[in-house]
Amino acid sequence: LKIIAETKIKSAHDLNTLKELKVKFLGKKGELTSVLRGMGGLSPEERPQVGALANEIRNRLESLISSKTEELEEEKLEKQLREQTVDVTLPGLPLTVGAIHPLQAIWEQMEDIFIGMGFEVAEGPEVETDKYNFEMLNFLKEHPARDMQDSFYINPEILLRTHTSSVQPRTMLAKEGEVPVRIICPGKVYRRDSDDATHSHQFMQIEGLVVDRGVSMSELKGVLLTFIQKMFGKETEIRLRPSFFPFTEPSVEIDIYDPQKGWLEILGAGMVHPRVLEKSGYNPEHYTGFAFGTGIERIAMLKYGIDDIRHFYNNDLRFLRQFQSE
Ligand code: FA5
Predict the structure, then answer these.
(1) I need a surface site. Which of 36, 82, 204, 243 has the fewest CB within 10 A?
(2) Is residue 128 annotated as involved in ligand binding?
(3) Between helices 296-304 and 217-232, what is the axis angle to 10°?
(4) How far out from the chain centre does Cα 193 lie?
(5) pTM for this model (two decimals)
(6) Hey, whose CA ends up nearest to atom 10 of ligand 1?
């Protein structure tokens, strides 16, 4: 038995065969176990001798099996390593690299330009109250923009902000009458406009607000001309047209000149209305201010020559990949 078992164990080629052999010889119903069971039939003198022999065989076979198991496991590992070597000279798979979204690129560029002119970046909520979106900005109760037709209302007092101008009173109140106020606020705004080539129901604006002693219209023009020329080139011309906003007086619309398309409106601006200053805790006899608001999509469309605002929101990779190097 010992000799047969030893030969079989030594010549086992894989771990499964070895496991089977262990059961066959040493298991509960194994051959050695049945020898031990048969000891009842032996004489008392023979028993210790046969018992000792059987134990010796068991120990011998167990150590043989465990060293063979180790040997086979090592062999298996080496085989795996040999077969799975990595050929580092093979060319790798190309990685697809994402691009910054054109609106994000313009947003960041605009922030950099205004930060360079001493502006700080402010924030405000997209879900806004009537108070900050309209009331504090001198909109009359019956102003058409307050109508359910134009704004997304959550309830009669709360709506999705229709412009970033809501950050004007928020900032002034937070400053508690201190000057200078010199902020820009980029962010999303929402209107019940029907989507077409130049309108989107959700778009982005950048608001600007400056309040201090002696702030003038010529400073407003200087700041916006600097911004536009940094964005579109030194030669770009602008034009100020009279306009109306309830929160600025006088109000202007600013156009830029595009050689192909002529004059294009890009932003609204004006001197902060005295009533708006007053409502937010600034005495209009001591302080003046200017504000402006522009659409990020419209700036991006002009800058990149994009003819349809919907391209920005369709997530068409053929469109987005064109901005890979931005
Ligand atoms: C305003 O929203 C004023 N709050 C701007 C302002 C700020 C005036 C501070 C004075 C002082 P207006 O509704 O014109 O104004 O919108 C400003 C800009 O947002 C427009 O010039 C345009 O660039 C962009 N815009 C307006 N509606 C849409 C739309 N549906 N889709 C995309 N861009 C739009």
Answers:
(1) 82
(2) no
(3) 40
(4) 27
(5) 0.74
(6) 269
